[in-house]
Amino acid sequence: MEILVASGIGVLTMVGLYLVLSRHAFPVIIGTTFLSYAVNLFLFVMGRLEIDKAPIITKGVTDYADPLPQALVLTAIVISFGMTALVVVLALRGFLETGTERVEKGEPQRDARKRKAAQP
Amino acid sequence: MSHLIVAPIILPAVVAAFLVLVLRHDLTSQRIVSMASTLVLLAITIWLYVSAAEGAPTPYLLGEWRAPFGIVLVLDRLAATMLLLTALLAVAVLIYAIAGWDHRGQHFHPLFQFQLMGLNGAFLTGDVFNLFVFFEVMLIASYGLMLHGGGARRLRTGFHYIAINLVGSTLFLFAVGLIYAVTGTLNMADLAARVAQIAPGDEAILRVGALLLLLVFALKAALVPLQWWLPSAYAAAPGPVAALFMMMTKVGAYSIVRVYTVVFGADAGALADIAAPWVVPAALATLALGAVGVLASPTLLGMVCFSIVWSMGSLLLALGLFDPVGLSAGLYYLLHSTLSGAALFLLADLVAAQRGRLADRLVPAPRLPHADLLAGLFFVAAIAMTGMPPLSGFLGKLLILDATWRSPLAVTSWVILLGSSLLVIVGFARAGSTLFWKIADRPAEPAEPARSIALPVTVIAGLLGATALLSVFAGPISRELAATAQQTLDIKAYVRAVNPADLALSRGAPQ
């Protein structure tokens, strides 16, 4: 089971990094989302993968799953959700303002010129 | 213990919520409340500094949960120094912003207060995950502030800025996860004990986590090769916001010092001083690249941004030695570079506003209104930033040279620091000549409606005056900072204060 979870996290991270290096805003946003998924899973398994252990304090039980990574991951989920919402709004606003969602500098001028030239 | 330790976090948070919920439509009231709150914060941080100077680090247990089970804030000399510097800078920046910048967009004052909350929290917390949370508070506020005033350029650069910080936050969480996996704790004082006893089999994972964390802090501190985001982000930010952002790179430097002395310091066993081989070479590279950037920049703001990168190289060259002399020198330079950098950002903003469409491009322009005054301020600010006598930059640089003298990289450090200083001096001299001495022979184009610059000039002069005071009172200040450096490196005292021995004894052997 460990190798499967580790591989899954690795693939998510790899896909996220690839997308983050894109030239367009939308893949960058999706890439950061994948990275968030990867790190959430990563934090969750940092308390070790366990079966047949109690999650909450129970009478007569001495073996417990580690609850702290679950608390950490909840915090991370909330923060990354808020960040993703912000960056989506920013990308939309940027698109409306500049007419392009490409992230490099300098491109908007050329694109704008092409668009003006193409107009009848 | 006094509840004033938590006040630098709670006060801005409450005021920010109040401003956005109750006073959102009344800018005048927002200004009054924001200014009053920041002044109260300054008073609180002065009190905290005085009380921190008296003795051992003071823990503050949130919710009365003992460390390592609860989140703990720790007030010591280093944290108090950073809090005081933040409050001083905040007062200056807020006065400048009230002169006009704050009505060019929504919610400047609430975001400003949230920014202070994040900064103060980062300096006070004694928990690595809580440090992550305060980093995020600080960053979220910085996104809003950076985009204040809008415009296509800001939106584009803002997207870059947010994307790079999202990746940085992800790396932070990966690092935190690795450290927790092998130590079972994220409290810094508890980590100090656990790291020293790490099992050989877990050493590699912990090493990866430690270096990943260093990567995160280096990104925040704009160390080469992670500095490329800073020039464009700070150049696009509004002037007062960029001045406040001077404090954010200092958070990165502070985090490096705190984590790699307390947790991975001299007492950390197999991972002792794990950051030391990396920070100084990276700082030297940062110095070189920052200086080249200063020469290459076609705009005043770009030049100021690269000089910030350069000054971070100087700062981390001293801090990266991880010894009392280097730490003391670094702290003195930190005070200086924060004040002079903020003054330069505000001045660049003021000059750009006077020059119409030319803004801050380094080309001759018709004679500026208030040219003599601005030229004088620029001259003083350039002296401060480049580190020439008689201002505190020179003393700071001298202290750094002295601190690096005994290190293995002494010759390299001296050559790069002095050589890059020459390049920065040339860059600023050329910019000053172009902006203020060369006059284009054509009528002045209409700039923004003429507005009094008395208040902005007063703020800039105040910041530069502070660097002069740093120079005049260098002796007493250096002694204070030497004591701060000693306390910061006294890891046992820190651990003992936060994690009492009786608690440690009551816990079994590490599992």
CATH architecture grouping of chain A: Orthogonal Bundle
* The CATH C-level class name of chain A: Mainly Alpha
Beta content of chain A comes to under 5%
Task: Give the number of DSSP strands of chain A.
Answer: 0
Number of spatially distinct domains of chain A:
1
Task: Identify low-pLDDT runs of chain A.
Answer: none
Give the oligomer, counting copies of the same chain as homo and different chains as hetero.
heterodimer
**Shape estimate of chain A:** elongated
> Which pair of chains forms the biggest interface, and how many residues does each contribute?
A-B, 34 and 28 residues
Which structural class matches the secondary elements of chain B? mainly alpha
Strand order of the largest sheet of chain B: 1-2
The chain-level mean pLDDT of chain A equals 83
* Largest sheet features of chain B: 2 strands, antiparallel
How would you portray this structure in words?
The complex is a heterodimer of chains A (120) and B (511). Chain A has 120 residues and is mainly alpha-helical. Chain A has helices at 2-20, 25-45, 68-98, 107-118. Chain A has one domain (2-118): Helix Hairpins, CATH 1.10.287. Chain A contains 4 helices and no strands. In chain A, helix 2 packs antiparallel against helix 3. The radius of gyration of chain A is 21 Å and the shape is elongated. Chain B has 511 residues and is mainly α. Chain B has a domain at 275-472. In chain B, 72% of the residues lie in helices and 2% in strands. Chain B has helices at 7-21, 27-52, 77-98, 108-124, 128-146, 152-183, 188-196, 203-221, 229-236, 239-262, 276-296, 300-319, 324-354, 371-386, 392-404, 410-437, 454-472, 474-489, 491-498, 501-506, and strands at 58-61, 72-75. Chain B has a two-stranded antiparallel sheet with strand order 1-2. The two termini of chain B are 33 Å apart. Residues 502-511 of chain B have low confidence and may be disordered. At the A-B interface, helix 2 and helix 3 of A face helix 5 and helix 6 of B.
